[in-house]
Amino acid sequence: MSGLHMSTACQADDRQASFVFFVAVMIRALLSSFKFDKAALVLLVLCLLTLVPLLVVVSGLGRADPAIWAHLVDNQLPTLVRNTLGLVVLTAVFSLLIGTSLGWLVAMHDFAGRRWLEWALMLPLAVPVYVMAFSQLGLFDYTGPIQTLLRGWTGVNVQAFFPLRSMVGVSLVMSLAFYPYVYLLARNAFKTMGQRALEVGQSLGYSPRRAFWRVALPMARPWLFGGVMLVVMETLADFGAVSIFNFDTLTSGIYKAWFSLFSLPTAQQLAAILLLVVLLVVGFEQYWRGRRRYAAVGGASKSRRVVLTGWAAWRASVWAGWVFLLAFALPVGQLVVWALPSLSVWCWLRCV
Fold it and tell me: At what angle do helices 38-59 and 2-33 cross, to 10 degrees?
């Protein structure tokens, strides 16, 4: 058995050495084929540095532990993959819905509070997603102020209405942190086309709502798709938020394989699976963009916003304000409340 183990280890070392030799040969061929100036050489060095983590991941592919992998396949890996894919899809969908609707309202309409909401809706980007998750859990968990207040008012256990530790709950919290990626690109896309897109729709006999779905939204797809790709990458790479919610994904599985199973090669192999998912997403994005061609609808005229009145203006202000409240004001307010006890005068004097 020991001889077989040594033979397997030697084969793995040979494969790693062959891979490193192949990379070295490719780099040497690249350097000998082109004449680089200083800027290109610096760029090449930076690119090579970004390959180091990938090489570390790939280096562990030939050192699989059959016992650990049998345990993972039977007990954990299906759940990790299912949770990761489900979380990515739901977070992308929620972020797309929130970001697109807000971008359309802010870029094409005028309503109460639009001027400050236009920049305030970007502020969730300043809150790290794990801080967002911790604050939301403190606010809406069973012992948090929201559920405690509702139980006191109604006398009913409302925990079922706040499924924060489920896939839907985690994806909603993460979408509140990541929707600005879609919002920024959607707002710029709709600003670029201005009212011309609606005018094109009206010339085709469309109502304003149908013109949005049939003209403006299809033209904004490249921007929206770019924002969704950023959301997908952020969701795949997240470790802090899913750990706070105790929601197992591939990133948390990598950590547990390394520090609980004490198997660095297994962690590298799980990271390779995550890397494969990223490559598939990037490949799909390139394929999707390559098969479509878009033309911009715009002009020199200044974009005119539609002034909303009555019920429509109220709905727009409430929706945008509600998102800002959940995504920034409440989490930051919770952090301030937690920090206040340490900001007393006595503590300040002692620190000074």
Answer: 170
For residues 39-46, average pLDDT? 78
What is the length of the chain?
352
**Residue 16 one-letter amino acid:** Q
Query: What are the tokens at 31?
Result: 């350097």
Sign of dihedral through CA atoms 223, 226, 232, 237? negative
DSSP 216: I
Contact 190, 107 (CB under 8 A): yes
Residues 48 and 75 in one domain: no
Q: Which CATH number fits the domain that encloses residue 320?
A: 1.10.3720.10
CB atoms closer than 10 angstroms to residue 211: 20
CB within 8 Å of 137: residues ≥ 6 apart: 144, 164, 244, 245
Q: Once rounded to an integer, what is the mean pLDDT over residues 272-292?
A: 79
How confident is residue 2, by pLDDT bands cut at 50, 70 and 90?
A: very low
pLDDT tens-digit series, residues 116-155: 999 999 999 999 999 999 999 999 888 888 888 888 888 7
> How many other C-beta atoms can be found within 10 angstroms of the C-beta atom of residue 338?
12
Put simply, whether the predicted model's pTM sits higher than 0.70 gets the answer: yes
What is the rounded CA–CA span in Å between residue 129 and residue 119? Answer: 19
Tell me which residue range forms the domain holding 26.
1-63
Same domain membership, residue 70 and residue 56: no
Residues 278, 280, 283, 287, Cα dihedral to 10°: -140
Rounded average pLDDT over 207-221: 82
Token duo for residue 32: 């000998």
Enter the DSSP assignment of 113. Answer: T
Query: Is 261 exposed, middle or buried (CB count within 10 Å of its CB: 0-12, 13-18, 19+)?
Result: middle
Cβ(129)–Cβ(241) under 8 Å?
A: yes
**What pLDDT sits at residue 334?**
92
CA angle 79, 82, 88 (to 5 degrees): 135
Amino acid in the structure at residue 261: L
Does the pLDDT of residue 88 top 90, yes or no? yes
The pLDDT value recorded for residue 332 is 93
Is there a single domain that holds both residue 54 and residue 91?
no
Is residue 232 pLDDT above 70, yes or no? yes
